[in-house]
Please model this.
Amino acid sequence: MEKMARGERMIRIFVYLMTHHTYRYSVAEIMENLGIPKGELRSVQRDMVSLLDMPGDYVSRSQERAITYYQANVARASKFILSDFDDILLQFVFLQRISSIYPATSSLITELVDKIKGSLPAKLKDNVDYSGKSLNGRILFMGTPPEYDSDIGKKLTVVLKAIEKNRKIMVEYEDNFGRTTKKMRTPLALVIDRGELYVACVSESLPGNTYTLKLRRMKSVQLTKVGFEPKAVDLENVRNRVRSGGMFFGEQNPNCEDISIYFPSYMQNVLMEGPYNRSMKISKSDEYTVRVTMKAEVNDSLKQWVLCHGVNAEVEKPESLRRLIIDSAKAIVNLYRR
Model:
């Protein structure tokens, strides 16, 4: 990896610790995991001191057998399920925006952002300022964000407080058919996907089952005094469903299969820019074709992703996905032959 400016490097380290908050790392491990050259050891050590100096003690330091370890202290970060994001600029703007929707990190991130911004090159600083204004109030790392009503921040604050304090919420919700119901919900995690915010909940009637509510469809949400004891197995269920691509349309216990799809080589950049999930890999098949492989559940979500590429996508395997595509293609033909 080419040498990074100090601001870029600190952002990488901070985001890495935050998104891997359940583990502790030595400086050597941080450098190895982030691909930072060994020659920047002293610079990274200075970065860690700066992160430790931030108010709120969000980064902690411990020692064992003469080795110093660092770990993020934000236990509540486990309640967020974030997609993978690597772009430095988006990481920076993400920090700026997340402070407004996650109050517990506000003071830390504000000071960290100001400190890092001061060390950025002028051109990058201008890009950050421009992006911060143009992407105002949006979730930045999951594609084009939707428009939210003026109360979205208040609703999100209530949801986050419920997740943090393990309290149930009373939600007035509008479903796909425009019908509104008011029910008690058990919020477990916040899922962020393609510019939309979803609240992952545990089923009241089917314990152990999880489902999502789209935040923008919540007409009202109130924090109740009813508490609940979150189960690690339920949160892991949500994580598995997100990883498999089946959180919204898949089974409760997703069965991931080996997926293989061929695309024209000119689609490579498009595919890289919009991967289906984190496991997706792209390899060259021949001069004119690339092959996409991944581990995913075969469901309507994957089917729709393949169909959105039209005749550019040819499923090699599994046969179950091929049948889904064929059945959908036949249904479309029959619709237009009426």
Observations:
- Residues 75-90, 100-105, 131-148 have pLDDT under 50 and may be disordered.
- The longest helix spans residues 319-336.
